């Protein structure tokens, strides 16, 4: 069996690592070896951002290992064979980074760092402008209770923040409160001083961060979006900041990346932007996980992280 390989941005090191770790497999570099490969031998693929013609000539492809946690890009690929099982990364070192990123945003809000930064720029000693708020009074709501959402929530709970996760189906977790379904969304939003979006991008979640949702948050709430850019209706965020409904936002993902130079987010006082780096795939952990999934499938079992293509994640 052969594995077709393409991971955008790889300088050859990742490919070499897989070849070294899977000596019993032929790994074909799609970029330069695809024409020499026998298509009937290719039963699996390892991918990140595969080109539009990547899946041409792969009639026996059975499994696609996504080298990412999110699979929204992959599911939109027009050539993706409908019979293929898709396996994605779960956590693989990303949850720890995501928890750090989210904590940074929560502290920015709680410790009023935006106000302090602008006071510094004006050489204003803002001691009397700051009101101490204890962690116990900063209610955190996390959209999503998956591999990342739950670990971020547990980290917040360790830091004494009251935290609630919202998901599609019911989740039970000893350390954090979990609610689920549309009927629970209103109360969840009403009591989220900081809202963190860790949903996958699907038809159901596209544009979920919109004016209607912001209106249900407490006045002056803070938004953290490391999910996907298309979760957010960007103009609605600008309007919510203008009206004071939201006090600020930390954004890692955007509907267009890289963010265009003329985009208003670059200069907005109440928006902190980061270039899609909240949680990056750690090579060793991710390679280990893909290899474990390959071995599991070869034993005829189902690995963790199989994507439900109907649900979209
Ligand atoms: N910025 C970055 O650097 C970065 C890095 C990695 C990942 N991400 C993003 O983070 C996302 C989440 O990753 P993950 O590994 O935690 O995903 P996951 O394990 O699949 O968890 C997704 C969670 O979202 C919930 N959900 C999905 N659709 C929903 C809906 N319509 N209504 C309510 N809840 C819904 C799921 O509910 P159930 O529990 O009921 O299934 C689940 O709890 C990824 O898809 C990716 O877009 C960003």
TrEMBL record:
Keywords: NAD, Oxidoreductase, Pyruvate. PROSITE patterns: D_2_HYDROXYACID_DH_3. It comes from the Bacteria. Its EC number is 1.1.1.79. The keyword NAD applies. One of its GO terms (molecular function) is glyoxylate reductase (NADPH) activity. Residues 106-278 form the D-isomer specific 2-hydroxyacid dehydrogenase NAD-binding domain. Gene3D superfamilies: NAD(P)-binding Rossmann-like Domain. PANTHER family: 2-HACID_DH_C DOMAIN-CONTAINING PROTEIN, D-ISOMER SPECIFIC 2-HYDROXYACID DEHYDROGENASE NAD-BINDING DOMAIN-CONTAINING PROTEIN. This is Glyoxylate/hydroxypyruvate reductase A. It comes from Granulosicoccus antarcticus IMCC3135.
């Amino acid at each position: 069996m052969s594995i077709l390989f393409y991971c955008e941005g790889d300088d050859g090191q990742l490919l070499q690592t897989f070849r070294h770790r899977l000596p019993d497999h032929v790994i074909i570099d799609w970029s330069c070896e695809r024409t020499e490969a026998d298509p009937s031998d290719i039963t699996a693929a390892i991918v990140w951002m595969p080109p539009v013609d990547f899946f041409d000539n792969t009639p026996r492809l059975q499994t696609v290992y996504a080298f990412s946690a999110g699979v929204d890009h992959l599911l939109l690929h027009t050539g993706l064979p409908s019979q293929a099982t898709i396996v994605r990364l779960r956590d693989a070192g990303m949850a720890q980074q995501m928890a750090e990123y989210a904590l940074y945003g929560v502290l920015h809000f709680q410790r009023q760092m935006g106000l302090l930064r602008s006071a510094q720029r004006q050489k204003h000693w803002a001691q009397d402008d700051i009101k101490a708020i204890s962690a116990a009074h900063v209610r955190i709501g996390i959209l999503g209770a998956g591999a990342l959402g739950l670990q971020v929530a547990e980290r917040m709970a360790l830091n004494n923040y009251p935290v609630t996760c919202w998901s599609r189906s019911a989740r039970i977790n000893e350390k954090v409160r979990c609610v689920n379904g549309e009927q629970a969304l209103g109360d969840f939003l009403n009591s989220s001083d900081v809202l963190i979006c860790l949903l996958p991008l699907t038809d159901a979640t596209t544009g979920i961060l919109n004016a209607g949702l912001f209106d249900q948050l407490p006045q002056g709430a803070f938004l953290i979006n490391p999910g996907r850019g298309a979760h957010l209706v960007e103009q609605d965020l600008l309007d919510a900041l203008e009206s004071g409904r939201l006090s600020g936002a930390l954004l890692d993902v955007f509907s267009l990346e890289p963010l265009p130079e003329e985009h208003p987010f670059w200069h907005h006082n109440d928006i902190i932007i980061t270039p899609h780096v909240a949680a990056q795939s750690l090579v060793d952990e991710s390679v280990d996980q893909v290899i474990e999934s390959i071995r599991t499938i070869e034993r005829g079992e189902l690995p963790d992280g199989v994507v439900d293509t109907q649900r979209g994640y």
